Hints:
With 282 residues, the chain is an alpha+beta fold. The protein has one domain (4-154, 203-278). 26% of the residues lie in helices and 29% in strands. The chain contains 9 helices and 14 strands. The protein has helices spanning 4-13, 19-24, 32-45, 52-62, 115-118, 148-151, 155-169, 208-211, 232-237, and strands at 63-66, 75-77, 82-88, 95-98, 105-107, 125-136, 139-147, 176-178, 184-187, 197-199, 203-205, 224-231, 252-260, 268-278. The strands form 3 sheets. Strands 1, 2, 3, 5, 6, 7, 12, 13 and 14 form a 9-stranded mixed beta sheet that branches. It has a 3-stranded antiparallel beta sheet with strand order 8-9-10, with no helix packed on it. Strands 4-11 form a two-stranded antiparallel sheet. Helix 1 (4-13) packs across helix 3 (32-45) and helix 3 packs across helix 4. The two termini are 32 Å apart.
Amino acid sequence: MSNIIDAIYNLVNRPIVEIVDSYSGKNRANNAGDALEEYIKDLFANSFDFEETSRIKKWSEEFSYLGNNSNPPDAMLHGGDAIEIKKIESDNSALALNSSYPKQRLYSSSTMISNACKDAEEWNKKDMIYAVGVVRNNSLQHLSMVYGLDYCANKKCYQRIKSTIKNGIETISGVEFAKTNELARVNKVDPLGITYLRIRGMWVIENPWTVFNYVYQRDHSKKFDFMCIINQTKWEKFPNKELLETIHDERFDITDVKIKSPDNPAKLVKAKLITFYIDKED
């Protein structure tokens, strides 16, 4: 069963900076976003050198679910974490999550996921990994992987805001509302009763480099850099974490840090900061 430790190990041993050229050349990606998704999935499955039939089989072995742009997550590991992949083009861009609020964990009971996701395996909840890449000029310049547990507030925080707004909208008189997972849907807006209005939320969260700038700052003189943060409790659960100790590369580092709890910033949580970089001349 693959996990984030395997992905980090594979990244250090198989970094691909020119991801668009690499994946479009193999007819696996139509744009930078697709290329980033393909690369992240290859990192977790270690499926770089597989011909397509074998690669599909390997993905089926490692992933229980592979999603789409309409429903989170982008992938779920068999018996492991869920993965949401986001591409941005600017160093300081925030992440557009659309109608799906930020998640510490993904729950099988969620109304925002597909039935295929719910039925992918026997599961109740999965920790969420946010994999975010900055892709410019067809090159992956920065990549981060952070857990929702370290990045987002508890779901009650977001649900309270959503419910308050939704309930407020539905108190408007003289409007016919329909049941929806969105904030609201208004039926029969026009005299013929053929037009409806969808009221949707647009959730946005600051990118991980902005959120964790007190423990990590990007070196823009590098060709590529990678950052990963894993809280100590999660770190201790990985049976293969010693795999990273076999990496003997001066560009790779694991540091003990303390990060702010997303639910109470006054509380500091022990975590591992894992970094890797590639110089421009490499």
